[in-house]
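Example record for the data management plan.
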Amino acid sequence: MTVEAAFVLPVFLFAMLLLAYLGQMARCQDNVQWALTRMAREASAEYGATKNRVLLNKAYYSVKLAGYLDSSAMSISLLQSHICEEGDEMDFVADYRIKLPFRLLAKDSFAFRARVHTRAFVGVTERGKEGGNSGEQDVYITETGRVYHTSLACTYLKLSISRLKFNDIGQLRNEGGGKYKPCEKCCKENQPVGKADVWITNFGDRYHIVRSCSGLKRTIKKIKLSEAGSRTPCSKCGE
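Corresponding structural encoding:
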């Protein structure tokens, strides 16, 4: 029994140490993801408030991310990030390595990646008030919409974007019960196949293969009712 214990005890202790460190690595991944998400949200708000070129600098966000973490044990790189390179899209990619206290499978560290994709806040475009129409009702429109909305909180103005596989498109329906068709802009030259990622909206009737497609963006303008032209009232908030 003494000989068996001499063989088994080191293996048992090594296994327990390995499990404990795997838990520590998982905790480290959660901390990095949390810090990156917080930084991305603040970056979106900062861009909308200032649009300063300094705020588009990866070094600026690297320092900010390190401030949310105890990064003394690892080095985090944001070199693969894309900040407002295509419109107002912010794609933060954090690459980092976690060192092991011992060599495992000829490795002393493992590489990990955390990612957060968001859109820079650009606010709501408003038109200035005209003196003769100061008492006229304000309504809200979108650039391509055919209706006007009396409430900014209308669900038709809230754009909910979901990512899924192209194989599942045929089984899905939008909020109005309609099928999804290919976008005339981003799907004009390329058609998705198999398990390719596509993006849809809750009230839209198109699927998109490019996350930054202009068809997924919604610019809301506040105008006077007299400027609505041929637009008809929204079936929800305009009644």
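Summary line stored alongside the record: The two ends are 85 Å apart (CA to CA).
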